[in-house]
Design brief:
alpha/beta, seven-stranded mixed sheet, two-stranded antiparallel ribbon, 7 helices
């Protein structure tokens, strides 16, 4: 078996729980159908502990300075993005790390952080339906596609509302490790997954 795919999941105060836990589960159990481990998944944050939505306390695996370079970077959303989009250190970190990634995936309002990092410039994107106006302000040169559950630009993938992060993660998994691996992962999770157009 080849090297494990490294997947870093950014977390911060007031991050939406399913936004990061859904993708974490998808990548972490990929291969479990055949009793294999295909991805090394870890969380990264600027501080510890992180207090997610509704008070869930999380100890991230790494801080920003010591995070191993990932092939996939997941940037979740939540109310915390409204503050973090003005966090210059975090936005600079996203920009630097994203440059070395094969795929950067935002979930929900994580798209706001990608926009602030300049990663959505000239691309199409989606986000939570209640944040579309804000994303339009932050990324005026980004084509918004509110009717799509996920939008795949190649290196940058954006997912709409909270649960769409699971679908988008399976979509990314299919791209990186093949549709069969993604379908087996969904089956292992007993998740009703139907691949959708994402262009």
């Amino acid at each position: 078996m080849g090297a494990l795919r490294k997947v870093a999941i950014l977390i911060f105060d007031d991050v939406e729980v399913l936004d990061f836990c859904g993708p974490f589960e998808v990548f972490a159990v990929s291969g479990a159908y055949d009793a294999k481990r295909l991805c090394e998944v870890y969380t990264v944050a600027q501080k510890t502990p992180v207090l997610a939505r509704n008070g869930l306390s999380i100890n991230p695996t790494y801080d920003l300075a010591h995070c191993p370079p990932p092939e996939v970077l997941v940037v979740p959303g939540g109310l915390g993005t409204r503050q973090e989009m003005h966090n210059q250190e975090l936005i600079a970190w996203i920009k630097v790390v994203a440059a070395g990634c094969q795929v950067v995936l935002s979930v929900c309002t994580g798209a706001l952080l990608l926009a602030q990092a300049g990663l959505l410039r000239g691309l199409a994107a989606t986000t939570h339906h209640r944040a579309l106006d804000l994303l339009a302000q932050v990324a005026p040169d980004t084509e918004l596609r509110p009717a799509q559950r996920l939008v795949d630009n190649g290196r940058v993938v954006t997912a709409a509302v909270i649960s769409a992060g699971i679908d988008a993660s399976l979509h990314v998994l299919a791209r990186l490790l093949g549709p069969e691996t993604a379908q087996q992962t969904a089956t292992y999770m007993e998740y009703d997954w139907s691949p959708q157009p994402a262009g």
